[in-house]
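USER: Write out one fold?

ASSISTANT:
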Amino acid sequence: MAMVGGVQVGRRLSSRFGIWNASLLTGGLFVIIISIVSHFLPEVDEIPAAFPATLLWRFRIATVEIQVVTWRRLGFCSAGSQSAR
């Protein structure tokens, strides 16, 4: 809802402030609205107290490694397709 409202406000402000300035104002307004709403949301503690920290650390390292492999493969595939032309 905040994004839809931001787009509508941005369109109205663009005639008064220009497209660039309206986009900056709308982006700032969106950040402010989301910050206020997230402040009032309840805290979520998804990790139980007895959960081993080393297992969590290994999971985080594994996800970073997966991201590295995925983005490298995408980079190499796109570079290979560009050089084939």
About this structure: The CA atoms of residues 47 and 56 lie 9 Å apart. The radius of gyration is 22 Å.
